[in-house]
Design goal:
alpha+beta; five-stranded antiparallel sheet; two-stranded antiparallel sheet
């Protein structure tokens, strides 16, 4: 009986660890299940753009996807460049608090043996750091002012970042 319980415990641990390792970075997509991009019109020419990644999405990817979305919004509304009024990238924990535990016990007095396996919260996509980036942008027409480091040529951003976008 002990051998059977041990085998079941090992199989359960391997299964859970296998699932935990399957997390993949979030692709460039509209917001779904708390991950992806979104935008909110604040005024006719002002937007708040957000991109949320999971624990497998690097910070740099989240920030690049944010800028890419800002450029898409700019071009889609007939503008040429955008100015980042403010931006921030917040670090959090994806999947909430998670846990995994195994217990094996035996006793000679009561002839008891057994094992336990438990999890708490969400193991997949897994705990770990995740990033959410947001920016408030103002859309503008005409050439990007060369002396404004917060201004981005939307078409240049799209062209430069397109090879890094995973859809």
């Amino acid at each position: 009986m002990k051998r059977k319980n041990f085998r079941a415990t090992v199989l359960a641990i391997a299964s859970v660890l296998g699932l935990a390792g399957c997390a993949t970075p979030i692709s460039y997509q509209p917001m779904s299940g708390g991950y992806g991009y979104s935008e909110q019109a604040l005024e006719t020419d002002r937007y708040r753009v957000t991109f949320s990644g999971n624990s497998a999405t690097p910070r740099e990817t989240v920030e690049n996807y944010l800028l890419y979305r800002a450029a898409e919004v700019t071009v889609a509304h007939g503008y040429d460049h955008f100015v980042v009024v403010d931006k921030n990238t917040e670090q959090g924990t994806a999947g909430g608090p998670g846990g995994f535990g195994v217990g094996v016990g035996s006793g000679s007095r009561n002839r008891y043996s057994g094992f336990g396996l438990g999890t708490s919260a969400t193991i997949w996509p897994g705990g770990g750091d995740s990033y959410v980036a947001y920016a408030n942008i103002v859309l503008r027409r005409g050439a990007r002012p060369a002396d404004d480091p917060k201004a981005y040529d939307a078409r240049a951003v799209l062209k430069r970042l397109e090879p890094t976008i995973t859809r």
